[in-house]
Design goal:
Shape: globular
Number of helices: 16
Number of strands: 16
CATH superfamily of the largest domain: Type I PLP-dependent aspartate aminotransferase-like (Major domain)
CATH topology of the largest domain: Aspartate Aminotransferase, domain 2
Bound molecules: ligand F0G
Structural class: alpha/beta
């Protein structure tokens, strides 16, 4: 049998709500053309994020009932710790309420003015936490990762030569950490190869720089390694994941992705001194060391989810379902990031809307059109999210103008996805009618969350 089906059946459902195109036009205007400002009740298919939006399993819900809510030494913490350790083999495991809380702690301790953090690509909150500490984040993505339409097996890889160059330029003593994001969310959900991780490890050893993994989507990345990298086809996903973490000195993780949890995260590391400093900060910001901003029941859900996500029937379905939508779009000539990533389909807005210059945010224009046409919520990953201004106030655009359609785990069925494809094709047909946007209000940091925009005539 070749057909890959959902490896679950549905026990509990929630309604989604329909609106008309006329209503959506008004909603969009009221939301200042920013998809983060639209009420979830007004969305039909919500592909804003795969974070915290997973459907939990009956096992996870059963675990939730067993949550031990003791302030200190909760039984749920030890289950959580065992689960994280079985994958990462890290001795010191620190729960946090989500990924960025782990980032806030580690970059507060290691960051500061004059420091540089180098990555394949830093996610927006990671970069923001680095910059907020006064430090600078530098992305060294491999060349093939920068061209959406050119397929390659590991487009999330770090550019090793660029990495060496940056280390020499900035001096290793100013680089507290190198971070590999798996999969590379801001670069199309593309995986990093084990070989690349090993090569980065070698450089870290040479210069005595710690290596951390931003592990949000470690299982999806591990499965890509199994599918695409020589020598891994016969290895199990847990084996691959353990090898991946074995090259790292620590990791940050948002359990809202590859742990099927609605909230949660952690920091894990090998260095005791660093762990003590992190725990001290944890206590004043997140909570005591055995709950870190989470309820005992949340720790249970994460502990179970982390193991469930490595099931190969699930991962096969997960990767295939992203590929299914990507391939449908490719067949119709829609410009998308190729090959399909692990958790989302990325439209290449620059190629989709060549008539809209980057200063007019073609990605955001496309996001608005998808909502207006079919009630689909996507997110721009381009110059609205990552753009900066030079000293003259001129936009320094992002490397790529992408629109991400993130697929929540175990939530939507194939007919939902067929509908999404239909809407995208309809917008593609009308692409010449789309207009650019201008920003009317913005904040200096993470402006895309709250910015207000309006269409240009
Ligand atoms: N790192 C990566 C690679 C992420 O994708 C995210 C979150 C974080 C860190 C932060 O984790 O949300 O738990 O604080 N990404 C979400 C997204 C929000 O939509 O891609 P968090």
């Amino acid at each position: 049998m070749k057909t890959i089906i959902e490896p679950f059946r549905i026990k509990s459902v929630e309604p989604i709500y329909f609106t008309t195109k006329e209503e959506r036009k008004k909603i969009l205007e009221k939301a200042d053309y920013n998809s983060f400002r639209i009420k979830a009740r007004d969305i039909l298919i919500d592909l804003l994020t795969d974070s915290g939006t997973s459907a939990m399993s009956s096992n996870q819900w059963a675990g939730i009932m067993q949550g031990d809510e003791s302030y200190a030494g909760s039984n749920s913490f030890f289950k959580f710790e065992d689960s994280v350790r079985s994958i990462t083999n890290m001795p010191y495991i620190i729960p946090t309420h989500q990924g960025r809380a782990a980032e806030k702690i580690i970059f507060t301790i290691l960051g500061g003015k004059g420091k540089y953090f180098i990555s394949n690509t830093l996610f927006d909150t990671t970069r923001a936490n680095i910059e907020f500490s006064g430090a600078e984040g530098i992305d060294c993505l491999c060349e093939e990762g920068k061209y959406p339409s050119v397929p390659a097996p590991f487009k999330g890889n770090m550019d090793i030569e660029a990495l060496r160059k940056v280390i020499k330029e900035k001096d290793a003593s100013n680089i507290p950490m190198i971070i590999i994001t798996v999969t590379n969310n801001s670069g199309g959900g593309q995986p990093v190869s084990m070989q690349n991780i090993k090569d980065v490890r070698k450089i870290c050893d040479e210069y005595n720089i710690p290596l951390f993994i931003d592990a949000c989507r470690f299982a999806e990345n591990s499965y890509f390694i199994k599918l695409r990298e020589e020598g891994y086809a016969q290895k199990s996903v847990p084996e691959i994941a353990r090898e991946l973490f074995s090259y790292a000195d620590g990791c940050t993780m948002s359990a809202k992705k590859d742990a099927f949890a609605n909230i949660g995260g952690f920091l894990a590391m090998k260095d005791l001194d660093l762990a003590i400093r992190c725990r001290n900060l944890l206590i004043i910001t997140e909570g005591f060391t055995t709950y870190g901003g989470l309820a005992g029941r949340d720790l249970e859900a994460v502990a179970i989810g982390l193991q469930e996500v490595m099931d190969e029937n699930y991962l096969q379905y997960r990767i295939r379902s992203i590929e299914y939508l990507t391939n449908k779009l490719i067949e119709a000539g829609v410009p998308v990031m190729q090959p399909a990533g692990g958790h989302a389909v990325y439209l290449d807005a620059k190629a989709f809307l060549p008539g809209i210059p980057v200063e007019q945010y073609p990605g955001q224009s496309l996001v608005c059109a998808l909502y207006e046409e079919g009630g689909i919520r996507a997110v721009e990953i381009g110059s609205l999210m990552f753009g900066k201004y030079d000293d003259n106030g001129k936009l320094i655009p992002a490397q790529m103008e992408l629109v991400r359609l993130a697929i929540p785990r175990r939530v939507y069925t194939q007919s939902h996805i067929d509908y999404v494809a239909e809407v995208i094709l309809e917008v593609f047909k009308k692409r010449k009618e789309l207009k650019g946007l201008t920003i009317t209000e913005e904040t200096p940091l993470l402006r895309h969350f709250t910015a207000k925009l309006k269409p240009l005539n």
